[in-house]
Design a protein that fits this description.
With about 130 residues, the chain is mainly alpha-helical. About 65% of the residues lie in helices and about 0% in strands. The chain contains four helices and no strands. The two termini are about 35 Å apart. The N terminus is likely disordered.
Length: about 130
């Protein structure tokens, strides 16, 4: 009957927005499974949740590990440094050691926030496509 609510617990997972209704399967050796499980536990999560998060992050192209995020932040810092120094250098301008020290400090304190902004913009662009 249209418009009639189903009793609690009888709605299929396809009827609920955001419900995980699909299952993926993969085979691992005993040693591989143990290694994955230990890694998930070291992250403070279950194996299933860690695998889910890792696959989604990988599909979305997001840095998934601390090292990848660290490298991305450092690359953003290098980009910020080049953008702040290359144009003045090409115009023949010079910077004093104090100016460079201030620039380095500024970049060091703002590069992580800038990296987060870039990732947020990137994910917004993917959502609108």
């Amino acid at each position: 009957m249209p418009g009639v609510l189903k009793p609690h617990g009888t709605a299929s997972s396809l009827d609920r927005p955001g419900a995980r209704a699909r299952i993926l399967s993969a085979r691992f050796t005993h040693d591989e499974y143990s290694e994955l499980e230990k890694h998930a536990w070291s992250k403070g999560t279950t194996l299933a949740d860690w695998v889910h998060e890792s696959l989604i992050d990988g599909a979305r192209g997001q840095p998934s590990g601390p090292m990848e995020m660290h490298i991305f932040i450092e690359l953003v810092g290098i980009q910020m440094l080049l953008m702040a120094t290359l144009d003045p250098l090409l115009r023949g301008e010079t910077k004093t050691p104090d100016q460079l020290a201030n620039l380095f400090r500024q970049i060091q304190t703002t590069k992580a926030a800038r990296a987060q902004e870039l990732l947020a913009k990137r994910s917004q662009k993917k959502e609108t496509q």
